UniProtKB/TrEMBL annotation:
UniProt entry keywords in alphabetical sequence: Antiport, Ion transport, Membrane, Potassium, Potassium transport, Transmembrane, Transmembrane helix, Transport
PANTHER family the record matches: K(+) EFFLUX ANTIPORTER 3, CHLOROPLASTIC
Protein name per UniProt: RCK N-terminal domain-containing protein
Main location as per UniProt: membrane
Keyword Transmembrane: yes
Length: 716
């Protein structure tokens, strides 16, 4: 068909081209324009229609992308008359969308009616589904093969796999080899990795640990406020222009005079990366340290801060609606609605998992675990919060159930693979051409962000005096300040929204994205710097008389270790302290032979130990660095006296890995818990219920109420 023949025809919608449901879908999509920002709808339609007609690159959005290859060669699109759909829309930004949509319908209808190449029976939704699935399959194959290579190379080079994923993403992404076929779907897959990461972190938060995390919420508020204020003030005070005197910076990027623009940059810079910091805490054994607890609390608070930030930002730039009653309703819906969901879930999830567990179907249990993590994220998002906050809340609800360990084991493979996809997606945002062209500006921006955030986080640890007795020690504050000094993944969301609201120019947004990505990538290195800074502070404090120098070894290197100095830990320490325990080494006989560790300062400060051969020290007794720092290298025995069952399980698992031949003694409330503890490495477990039964039997025997001494409650 020639272009002149086509120009005299109106649009036909044959049955094999649009069924009624698909046409209804398009109409509803358009009618939503009055409620949804035009950019979102335009992006959706551009992404949907071209993929059904074109085999060209997804990065090109010219008119020819809406055509099959056959029409590319015969009929130019501009020769066709525009089609007026007469849709009852009054949203001005819909004009461009309508133009592209009508062009696509004109060409598609005529082509599919008259073509002889076998495409006449193709249905648009089926074509879209087929192409999306094919592109996702190609990308998944690329991701999986890259993951294998990245893991092997990272292990051989002894570097973090996260860094390898970022490099792979940069090489394979649109600014590199451009190997990804479906960037939108890949990003969504990567987001599932973040969901599972936060879900698994929530599973680690028992009721005791949750209480500890809430103790550091004032520190989180102080960090967000100080960092936002300092970065805003630095930009408006002319800090970029001052640095331009000494460095070859690009004036097009540093001349920021608009207060709104400065506030947006500060809000984006305030956020830190959960995806990078949590693995660093786990690798270095800082999770249970005050530093790790404070970092977790601040990161979760930042996560909760993102949702209201995205709502408030349009008001900051003067583009938000003025219906404050509606805003109040949304706020109440988010708080009350999510609170109600948490309340219902607190007893409903336990019962659902119990029912599924009784079926002994592994597939159903795994599916339920995935459903809960993703489903709670969807519920939270529907209520106006972030999906990651919902996933974390789901983990917290299940943290005190008997299914925690199995759920963690089930989602671990999914979490690892999908997190790898997320990191590769993040790496694909790295624009190497832009970074090389603006290298001085990029490096200066990255260093400035790290320095400013480190200073403000350190200052925040000193500001809230009401944190006592949970105020961080200077060494922990030094570690925390460097850990949180990089950018975060949610900064990408804030910057993208700012671009859409015309607050930031697109080129500046791309530069800032690269800066944030660089600071995220060096988070493992910042962990090294954090540890070095902590040690340097100790050396400085000792040399200046601020802190008393520690002895070369505070306790015997083979001392008996008691983890936890609560009510149970005290009794164990006192009982062992009254016993005669000597060291095999002559020069260690004067040192304490029994040492208890706890991370609650007020417990240690208020305890007076009368025995010379015991010591109570601040720190995490299951952390090898803490033990080594105090001189314990090969403990003769370890007693785990934590009151929280989940903490006991985690400590037993970790200590058995560290000390394969050391006896580990712990306690449990039930025989089932005792069996689980023995399975992960406990040498002996005292079951409280059995001990109570033995005591009752002994009392009855003494009063001759019952006879016999048969052991009916054997420990297993």
């Amino acid at each position: 068909m020639t272009s002149s023949e086509m120009s005299g025809r109106r649009l036909h919608l044959p049955h094999n081209y649009f069924n009624g449901l698909y046409l209804l879908h398009l109409l509803l999509l358009g009618s939503c324009c009055r409620y949804i920002h035009g950019f979102q709808v335009q992006h959706s339609i551009q992404r949907f229609l071209p993929s059904a007609f074109s085999t060209t690159s997804r990065h090109q959005h010219d008119k020819k992308n809406l055509l099959p290859k056959a029409i590319h060669q015969t009929t130019p699109l501009y020769a066709l008359p525009p089609l007026d759909l007469h849709l009852p829309f009054d949203f001005t930004s819909f004009n461009e969308i309508s133009r592209q949509l009508t062009d696509a319908l004109d060409i598609g209808a005529d082509f599919l009616q008259d073509s002889e190449d076998g495409l006449a029976t193709m249905n648009i939704p089926e074509a879209e589904t087929s192409i999306v699935l094919e592109s996702m399959g190609q990308d998944l194959l690329l991701f999986l093969s890259s993951s294998v290579i990245v893991t092997l190379v990272s292990k051989s080079l002894n570097v973090s796999p996260i860094l390898g994923y970022l490099v792979a993403g940069a090489l394979l992404g649109p600014h590199g080899l451009d190997c990804f076929s479906n960037a939108k779907a890949d990003v969504e897959l990567g987001d599932f990795g973040i969901l599972f990461l936060l879900f698994s972190e929530g599973l680690e938060v028992s009721s005791t640990r949750l209480k500890r995390l809430t103790n550091y919420l004032p520190l989180g508020f102080a960090q967000i406020s100080l960092t936002t204020g300092v970065i805003t003030a630095a930009i408006l005070a002319g800090a970029p222009q001052f640095l331009d005197r000494f460095l070859p910076l690009d004036e097009g990027y540093i001349n920021i005079q608009n207060p709104t623009e400065a506030v947006v940059l500060a809000l984006a810079g305030t956020l830190s990366t959960s995806a990078f910091i949590f693995p660093v805490l786990k690798e270095r054994g800082w999770e249970s340290d005050p530093c790790g607890q404070a970092a977790t609390s601040i990161l979760l608070l930042q996560d909760l801060f993102v949702a209201p930030l995205l709502v408030i930002l349009p008001y900051v730039v003067g583009q938000g609606p003025t219906d404050y009653a509606a805003i109040g309703f949304l706020t109440v819906k988010a708080v009350v609605g999510f609170g109600l969901v948490m309340y219902i879930g607190s007893f409903l999830l336990q019962r659902i998992f119990s029912v599924v567990a009784r079926t002994r179907s592994t597939e159903s249990f795994v599916a339920l675990s995935l459903l809960v993590s993703v489903g709670m994220g969807a519920v939270a998002q529907a209520l106006g919060l972030t999906d990651t906050a919902g996933a974390f809340a789901a983990g917290v609800l299940l943290a005190n159930t008997n299914f925690r360990a199995q759920i963690q084991a089930d989602i671990l493979p999914f979490k690892g693979i999908l997190l790898g996809i997320f990191f590769m997606d993040a790496g694909s945002l790295f624009d190497s051409d832009l970074v090389l062209a603006e290298l001085p500006t990029v490096l200066t921006g990255a260093i400035a962000l790290i320095v400013l955030k480190a200073i403000t986080v350190a200052a925040a640890t000193r500001v809230p005096r009401w944190l006592e007795p949970n105020r961080l020690e200077p060494t922990d504050a030094a570690k925390l300040s460097f850990l949180l000094s990089g950018g975060g993944e949610f900064a990408f969301v804030v910057l993208a929204l700012a671009e859409r609201l015309d607050v930031l120019p697109k080129d500046l947004g791309g530069l800032l994205t690269s800066i944030v990505l660089i600071t995220m990538a060096i988070t493992p290195l910042l962990g090294e710097v954090a540890e070095a800074a902590s040690k340097a502070f100790v050396s400085y404090a000792v040399s200046n008389g601020i802190q008393e120098p520690m002895e070369e070894s505070e306790v015997a290197d083979d001392a008996i270790v008691v983890c936890g100095f609560g009510s149970i830990g005290k009794e164990i320490l006192y009982a062992l302290g009254r016993s005669h325990i000597s060291s095999d080494c002559e020069d260690k006989k004067s040192l304490p032979q029994v040492v208890a560790f706890d991370t609650e300062p007020f417990l240690i400060d208020k305890i007076l130990i009368p025995m010379d051969n015991t010591a109570v020290l601040f720190g995490d007794g299951e952390n090898p660095e803490v033990l080594k720092h105090h001189g314990v290298e090969n403990p003769r025995a370890i007693f785990i006296s934590y009151e929280d069952e989940e903490q006991v399980m985690a400590a037993t698992t970790r200590l058995r890995t560290l000390f394969p031949d050391t006896p580990i003694y712990t306690r449990a409330q039930t025989r089932k818990e005792a069996e689980e503890l023995k399975a992960v490495g406990a040498t002996e477990v005292v079951v409280e219920h059995d001990e109570l039964a033995r005591s009752a039997r002994s009392l009855l025997q003494k009063t001759n109420i019952i006879n016999g001494s048969t052991e009916v409650f054997p420990l297993r």
